[in-house]
Amino acid sequence: MKRYSRSMSLILILLLLGIFSSVGLTKEITITWWTNPWRIAPPGFPEDQAPTAEDFPAWASQEFMRLHPNVKVVYEVVPNAGYSQKITASILAGTTPDLLKDYTYKRQWAAQGLLEPIDPYLTPEEMADWYDYTLAKGLVDGKHYIFPWNNSSNGMGVTMLLNPEIFAARNVELPALPSRAWSIDEFFEIAQKLSYDSDGDGVNDHYAFAVGAKDIENSLAWLYLFGGRMFNEDETEVILNSPESAAALQFLVDAMYVHEIAPKGAEGMGVYDIIGLFHQGRTAIGYGGPYEIGRIDRYYKEGNLDRIFPVNIAPFPYRPGYDPIALGGSGGYVVFKQKDAEKRAMVMEFAKFLTNHENTAALKSLLYVTARKSVNEHLYDDSPFAEDISVYTQAMEHSLPFLGSPEIEFGPARDHLQAMFEAVFARTKTPEQALEDFAKEANRILFNKR
């Protein structure tokens, strides 16, 4: 009888454990998640409102917790300024988040054992749905460390934005579809027609385009389209001090001081100054991709623009004899090292949730191109921007990493690069002198070359 009672008790305990497990009374897990500001509209978000940087991470966290009642997701939206420093500090302090949007991803994190490889948590079919080059960004020693998500940046350094109303008012035709490709000579001829003096004082006050010393990505794009390159082929030396780079810088200086097709003061300008000139109609050509078209809509809804104006996309002009260029970029999520196997599996599940088909497709609200082939196939079929997104994806076929591969820690040299642009645009140094000074300093900092 006692033996029977013990058996019944054991059965009862097992049954109770099964019941508790089935209703979700399992181990409590907290997942910390850091992301930089992405103003994505979550499902059901009002179309007449502009989403904030908090809306999507708040929705995603709540939805995942609904699907997994034993999980608590704590997110933090980290500003772009200081993002890298915050991550570095957390690594040194051993307080990294569980999941991180890879805004400042470094391959050395994986090489140093700080990240979890994602391969064991994905099927071959799932891997095959991502573009090879988006996976390659996180490939270290045969293992993948990034869940791909976005297959582009905001378009800075990738393409240009054209205001067709200004083109039409100046009797200038847009570059022709399907690619809108144009040579540097065609660009220069068009730029002269788009620049004019509106108040009759003899000085142009409306311009074709603008450049800024603090706008590193777009300024570098000009050097790259002329044939300049930051590094030699094996990335052991800075070689930006080339005749091609000098020719590009001279073209930009002449655009400001000789031809008046770009405004002076570029030594003090940054990307938002340039965006502002484009939004104000002071320039006919801006920079960016589909995301920047979406910015116009958001600025209008926020009351920061008087009206929404049409925008078309074109690649940076090409220089005959040189390949077309665009700044390469993709992104996703990385998982920092986990000691607990159950939590590791759940963090991976959350990363898969954020990058699944439906949540990847949410990038459409930013007019972003995604890292999933299956999502991109029909994502913009019903969009009025379909032609321009096609121009953008064509331009991306020529993408290059302007500041080197992820193995290069370019950050310490970035201020010197900005100083080079400042000196050239202010005409305190010639392009040749500024490039030589930068290359010398960058080689010392990055490669310990004297």
Please give the alpha-carbon distance between the first and last residues: 89 Å
Sequence of strands across the biggest β-sheet: 2-1-3-11-6
What profile does the largest beta sheet have? 5 strands, mixed
Q: Give the overall shape, derived from the CA principal axes.
A: globular
Secondary structure category: alpha/beta
> In terms of per-residue confidence, which ranges show pLDDT below 50 for 5 or more consecutive residues?
1-5, 10-25
Could you say how many structural domains there are in total? 2
Strand percent estimate: 5-15%
**N-to-C SSE string, H for helix and E for strand:** HEHEHEHHHEEEEHHHHHEHEEEHHHHEHH
Query: What is the CATH homology-level superfamily of the largest domain?
Result: Periplasmic binding protein-like II
Tally the beta strands.
12
Query: Can you name the CATH architecture of the largest domain?
Result: 3-Layer(aba) Sandwich
CATH class of the largest domain equals: Alpha Beta
Q: Give the overall average pLDDT.
A: 91
Helix content: 40-55%
CATH topology of the largest domain: D-Maltodextrin-Binding Protein, domain 2
Radius of gyration: 25 Å
What does this structure look like?
The protein is an alpha/beta fold and 450 residues long. It folds into 2 domains: 25-153 and 329-377, Periplasmic binding protein-like II (D-Maltodextrin-Binding Protein, domain 2, 3-Layer(aba) Sandwich), CATH 3.40.190.10; 159-327 and 402-447, D-Maltodextrin-Binding Protein, domain 2 (3-Layer(aba) Sandwich), CATH 3.40.190. The chain contains 18 helices and 12 strands. It has helices at residues 2-22, 55-67, 83-93, 107-111, 124-128, 132-136, 164-169, 184-194, 216-225, 243-257, 271-279, 290-301, 341-354, 357-361, 373-376, 386-396, 411-425, 431-447, and strands at residues 29-35, 71-77, 99-101, 139-140, 143-144, 147-150, 159-162, 285-287, 312-315, 326-327, 331-335, 399-400. A 5-stranded mixed β-sheet has the order 2-1-3-11-6, covered by helices on one side. A hairpin with a 2-residue loop joins strand 4 (139-140) and strand 5 (143-144). Helix 9 packs across helix 10 and helix 17 (411-425) runs antiparallel to helix 18 (431-447). It is globular. The N and C termini lie far apart (89 Å). 40% of the residues are buried.
